[in-house]
Amino acid sequence: PIGQFLRLPAELRAGYSPDSELHLLWEKYPMIPSNPEATGIDRELWLTHFPNDPRAEAPDRTLDYLFYSPKLQRIEGYVRQEDTLTISDHLPVLGRLLLPID
Question: How far is CA 64 from CA 52, 76, 95, in A?
Answer without folding.
Answer: 16, 16, 12
